[in-house]
Amino acid sequence: MLTDEFGREVTGVRVSLTDRCNFDCVYCHNEGLGDTRGPMDPQDDEMGTDDVVRFLEVAAEFDVDAVKFTGGEPMLRDDLEEIVARTPDSMEVSMTTNGTFLPGRAEDLVDAGLERVNVSQDALDREQFAAVTQSGAYDKVLEGVDAALEAGLDPVKLNMVVFEHTAGYVPEMVDHVAENEGLQLQLIQYMPELTGRPEWNVDIDRVHDWLAEQAVAIEHREMHDRRRYWIAAEDAEIDGDPAASPHVGMVEIVDPVENPTFCANCHRVRVTHDGFLKGCLNRNDDLKPMGEMTKPEIREAFRAVVADRVPYYGEYMVRNGDGEWELNEKYLEEHAEP
User: Which of 10, 30, 79, 200 has the largest CB neighbor count within 10 A?
Assistant: First the structure.
């Protein structure tokens, strides 16, 4: 297993299979690359099936034990089932999707080896959902969640980005996962540094505080220093472990912005749809090409990207005398091109 100079073992990879998407979400940062989505047809720069599998085989050599497939929308890849089926058996396989293509494919993906799925669902209100996603696929997403549950992908984790457009819908979504078995909720902090709209930001600590008031139990997870809140529906009867009780929903917050503890616990390397490795979502100055994607080239690039990984907050970005975050000039000088 590869470890960076800050002692962080790389145990997972997040692989973007395409930057194409049938949605146009207003908060999208396309895995940190910016809004580069183009036509819906397959693009020449996307990694081929064999390229993706070859990369995963190398990652498995380094004891990486989990892969999450993302996009864009990964289900726009017709070869997704083949990629999942050919993923090394030692890896847990999950996917983040908008859910619209799960009806008709969820069962085949499970048969291929998919174990978990995150479905993006930013509001239970049809009009607001359309405004955020720039799509009219609200009902299709709900069908996709049902299809995932029916295929055995239980629990289905709903992803909700919390920002000005969606914050008012958080209580309704929390009630939704508490009342419906098989669902969990992941509230994702809006990242203005990647989207360029700081005026949309909300205070994520207020969301934490509100959930803490509602929770029947709170769990702390070492990974990314995350907190999980167990929220009971009105008719819930809790007997023993809240997590095992019906009508109790799990809500987790992902809050990386200005969070050195989050960055200090990051154990993932990302792969762009066009075959570059990156050590941090927030950076594109650390991209490592994998060349023609032969196994020796992949190994070399993987070692290099891990060696160069630093916590984004606390190392790449540091606080100045006024307590504000700024680029670490010392780090930039030490890593400047000769």
Answer: 10
pLDDT confidence of residue 41: 64
Does residue 39 register a pLDDT over 70? Answer: no
Residue 24 pLDDT: 85
Q: Which helix (H) or strand (E) holds 281?
A: none
* CB distance 5 to 307 below 8 Å: yes
We find that the CATH architecture of domain 12-264 is Alpha-Beta Barrel (3.20)
Verdict on whether the full-model pTM lies above 0.90:
yes
Question: Are the C-beta atoms of 74 and 111 separated by less than 8 Å?
Answer: no
Residues 91, 57: Cα–Cα separation, whole Å: 10
Pairing mode, if any, of strands 12-16 and 66-70? Answer: parallel
**CA 307/CA 301 separation, integer angstroms:** 10
Q: Where are the domains of the chain?
A: 12-264
* Segment 264-293, tens digit of pLDDT: 999 999 999 999 999 999 998 899 999 999
Helices (H), 8-152: 49-61, 80-86, 106-112, 126-133, 138-150
